[in-house]
Amino acid sequence: MITVEQLYEMLRKIHEPKGYLFNKDKDVVSELLKGLLINKDRYGYMSCPCRLASGDYGKDKDIVCPCVYRAPDVEEFGSCYCNLYVSKQWNEEKIPHVYVPERRPPEKMPY
User: Fold this and answer.
1) DSSP annotation string for 27-55
2) Radius of gyration of the chain from its Cα atoms, rounded to whole angstroms
3) What is the DSSP letter of 66?
4) Looking at residue 25, what DSSP letter applies?
5) Beta pairing partners, 79
6) Residue 46, burial from CB neighbour count under 10 angstroms (0-12, 13-18, 19+)
7) Which phi and psi (to 5°) does residue 64 adopt?
C-alpha cells in the first residue's frame, strides 16, 4: 500500500507545475492525504475526504481528487474546498483565508 509520504510526493510532482500547491500546514495535508488513501481503500478511488462519497464512481467522479471544483475554488478563493490545494498567494498569506463554499450541486449529494 502507498504511504502518505509517497502520495504527497507523487501528487506534488503532478500538481505544482500546474500552479496548485499543497497547503503549507503539513498536519492538515497529512490528514487529508490519509483520508484520500482511506477512500481509495474503501471505494477503489480517491474521493475528496471532505465530502460524502456514494461508493459509485460514476456518481462521484466530480469529487475524485483533484475534484472538478478545485480550479474555480483556487481561482476565486486561493484554496480548494478542503484546503488541500492552494495558490502560492494563499500559502504566502497575501490573500485572506476565507471559507470556501461548497460548489457541488445538492442533487449530486448521496444523502
Assistant:
1) HHHHHHHHHHHHHHHHHSS-B-TTS---S
2) 14
3) S
4) -
5) 86
6) buried
7) -75, 125
Q: At what angle do helices 26-43 and 4-15 cross, to 10 degrees?
A: 100
Residues 6 or more apart whose Cβ sits within 8 Å of residue 73: 79, 80, 81, 100, 103
Q: Which grid cell is 42?
A: 474503501
Three cell numbers, residue 86: 492552494
- Cross-strand pairs, 47: 64
Cβ atoms of 78 and 87 closer than 8 Å? yes
Strand pairing class (21-22; 85-86): antiparallel
Residue 103, pLDDT score: 96
Q: How many residues are present in the chain?
A: 111
Q: Return the C-alpha cell found at 87.
A: 495558490
Q: What are phi and psi of 90, to 5 degrees?
A: -65, -50
Q: Which whole number is the average pLDDT over 82-109?
A: 96
On the question of pLDDT at 111 being above 80, the answer is: no
